Amino acid sequence: MATRWGICSAGKISHDFTVALRTLAPENHKIVAVAARDVKHAEEFAKKHNIPRVYGSYDELAKDPDIDVVYIGTIHPYHLATGKLFMKSKKNVLIEKPLAMNLREVQELISAAQDNSVFLMEAIWTRFFPVTVEVRRLLEQGEVGDVQMVRADLGAPLTHIPRLAERKLGGGALLDLGIYCLQFIFTVFNGERPESIQATGHCIDTGVDGTAVLVLKFSGNRLAICTCSITMMLTCDAVIIGTKGTIKVNGKEMQFPLPEASMPLNFTNSTGLRYEAEEVRQCLLKGLKESPGMPWAHSSLIADVLDEARRQLGVTYDQDNIQ
């Protein structure tokens, strides 16, 4: 039986996620409905993607009885409210990364999932790429020996995009790009909490971080360096250095070919979103409430490190001041 999806928000990432879903077997994944705050946007989205049901509010989508899981593609500041809305309606949710604006909000979402006995996962798509699965396999087999250092870089000149540059929209390099570097580091170190976090960088005139460099020190003098930027092009790669060898992951060369998109995408390689969608289906079939590949503990740890890095850089959002 197909997993029945509802799409919350008719924006760019929801478009790409919908295209990615359509690369999976239709007997396994079915898009039932889409909701947007402007019903015209939802209608246009539904027409483009051939989705049968259209809603002009998220409340209506939450009440639809024929949906197994909702993909939440809103911008970060709305993740907490929309996530809680759907989970209180007993809907499983896949929430776009970052899961929320800070650790407090992440913990609220996890509590909502527990209280309502529903599935919750942060949509960090790269966690489920075949290349990530291969890296995990190499590490488990001891191919590089004992890991001594991890370095991950991701950056591009993106300050012209409002949601990346504006404080009110949850902008900044850390929340949008640094999260990918951190999740890779915590994949390698199995969700271990670092002993220390040192962050430096600079802010742009809107008050959000333009470039950030984080140095994480783990037990046994193991180190990780995360560099992210919305002001400059970085190497966009990751390296794992061990006592026996090195693994390099290049962000521009896909070693594992992705399926062709049925229509133009907004973001590079977005058909790769199919892997997180399939992870959700497999978890639901097994009756799981969280993904072993992206557990709540990892989402909490990433949010905690992001909070501390922002504190050191002097970046605050309105959501940080709510008691």
Written account of the structure:
InterPro entries: Gfo/Idh/MocA-like_OxRdtase_N (IPR000683), Gfo/Idh/MocA_domain (IPR050984), GFO_IDH_MocA-like_dom (IPR055170), NAD(P)-bd_dom_sf (IPR036291). It holds the Pfam family GFO_IDH_MocA. This is Trans-1,2-dihydrobenzene-1,2-diol dehydrogenase. This protein is α/β, with parallel strands linked by helices and 323 residues long. The protein has 10 helices and 12 strands. The protein has helices at residues 12-21, 39-49, 58-63, 79-88, 103-116, 130-140, 162-165, 173-188, 274-285, 296-313; strands at residues 3-8, 29-35, 53-55, 69-72, 92-96, 120-123, 147-155, 196-203, 209-218, 222-229, 237-242, 246-250. Helix 2 links the parallel strand 2 (29-35) and strand 3 (53-55). Helix 4 runs parallel beside helix 5 (103-116), helix 5 runs antiparallel to helix 10 (296-313) and helix 8 (173-188) packs across helix 10 (296-313). It is globular and about 55 Å long.
